Amino acid sequence: MEPEINTNHENLDEEGTSPIANTNFMREKIKQRPINKKKLIRSTLITVSLAVIFGAVACLTFVFLSPLINNTLYPEETPAPIALTEETVTDEMQPEDMYADDSAIAAEAYSAAIDMASSEISRIQQQMTTYHFDSSDYIEMYSSLKTIAQKASKGLVTVTGVTSDTTWFNDPYESKGNASGVIVADNGTEYLILVASSAIADAQSIQVTFSDSSNCSAYLKTKDSISSLSVIAVNKKDVSKDTQEKIAPASLGSSNSGVVIGTPVIAIGSPTGTQDSICYGFVTSSNSSLDLADSNYKILTTDIYGSTDASGALINLSGSIVGFIDMSYNSSNVPNVLCAIGITELRPLVEDLSNETKKPYLGIHGQTIPDYIMENQEIPSGAYVTRTDMDSPAMAAGIQSGDIITELNGESITGYDALVSKISDLTVGEDASMTLMRQATEGYIEIAVEATPTSSTQGAE
Q: Which pTM does this prediction carry?
């Protein structure tokens, strides 16, 4: 800065001296230092970069450490694996129980004759011949059946799939499809519910209504493409304590033909197409197998007239489920007669879906050849292949209709049921070696193939 001297003579006093000069005053002019634009831009960029880096580090730290901190402070319960207990048939009378040894009958008759006086016998006989059933007996009987149905209904729910859409005039609306589902298990953190996949297909949200009319949101656990069945889940935290005390997983019984054919059953859920409806009847057959790949599901038919849209379950007089109602497999001759998938063969699938286990899929349809046909026509023992699914692992491996599978991974296959059991033990994605017998001009020839199973089950997307 350069000093600036005032040379203005107008301010001189009489002696010719300036008053300002007498005070030795010097006036300075301050100039602003020029701004270094490059340095300012560089500093700004460095500051912004550091802020971005710090923010990114903070976000990543929060994302990765937050779950760890939450799990440490508020640990969630690990769902217990589902293991469905084997059915017991001791609750119902077996056919062999209706017959007794002749000597036992004689001994019992002799003992009764000794213990009972002739007068007592006459009195009992007279009462039996004179007694006539009236309406009160029927009322009491059906009241008892209704009590069984109401108790079993604690294990049933109404599943509603909600889908949003618009009309031709762009007016929004919600379409709702519902069906009855069965609470098959409680893994400690969730209620697991078996339901037909069609009830929740393309649904944007799923609602479950329990037997006490309370509602909860549900989500897809796993679905199976072969059986078209799904398991959905409801978080137990969303279910009130009062509702938890009023519901319970359903008891699973037996659908073996020797147990259920000719026995009375109760249809619960929505057998008439209306929720909470009840029907009574008998199982008329259970020997028909569903033509589904890699499975041996049996269909139960009844004499119960219901809706073609029926859903729910068939229960025996002990209140245990013997079949899951599915009208999609019903005969066209009797479209309104209730039918259900037998629970005995369905049990392994329900367990896999509940545990989110990948179910191996090869795509083989088959049957077991009766012994007398094998002997008469000299057909090898094994699982007879009726057809294979298009683009399935079995088709890719070269398995054809008419082939007889005799070995799978070195283990002997004696029939189609044995093949289904061995397929369920395979690991998805791992090659499985198979031995086939294929008919040629001069008899059967042995062929070795390898197939890589995929999975027929899929979780939520």
A: 0.73
